[in-house]
Amino acid sequence: MRMPLAILLLLPLAEIAAFVVVGKYLGVLATLGLTVLASMAGLVLLRVQGAGVLRRLQTESQKGADPAREIVHGAMIVIAAFLLIIPGFITDVVGILLFVPFVRDFAWSLVKPHVTVMRESRFSYRSSSKGPAAPRATVIDLDEDDYHHDQKRQSPWSVDDGRKD
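RESULT FIELD:
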């Protein structure tokens, strides 16, 4: 818990230091221009690569394959775009790295054993090699013939106000 808190507190200081160093070498206008350019690049990359991931996710789902990889890649692209959109050079470098497919594949290999994708069907998919995941909840699927609501029958919990409907 201390590591994310330390990163959250130290990152703004590191970003300010990076702005000072880059501003010293490039000048104020060039530094501001790079910041705006990085934000615009984040928006464009999110649109282009995000659409590609959505198409691959749809293809994987239609084939009945495990869509976990594409879901995680899509999440990493959204995070990368967010890191590019917010001002700062350190977050821009991390964001650009997350847009590189090789880096996303490496991150996926680290996350893969911990990801479970469950579908609304009788099958569940687990991305690790341990086999199918155990369902987390019991699902009772009733057909229309299995359940009906009798309007005439009174329940102890129903309120009888004497009106006829």
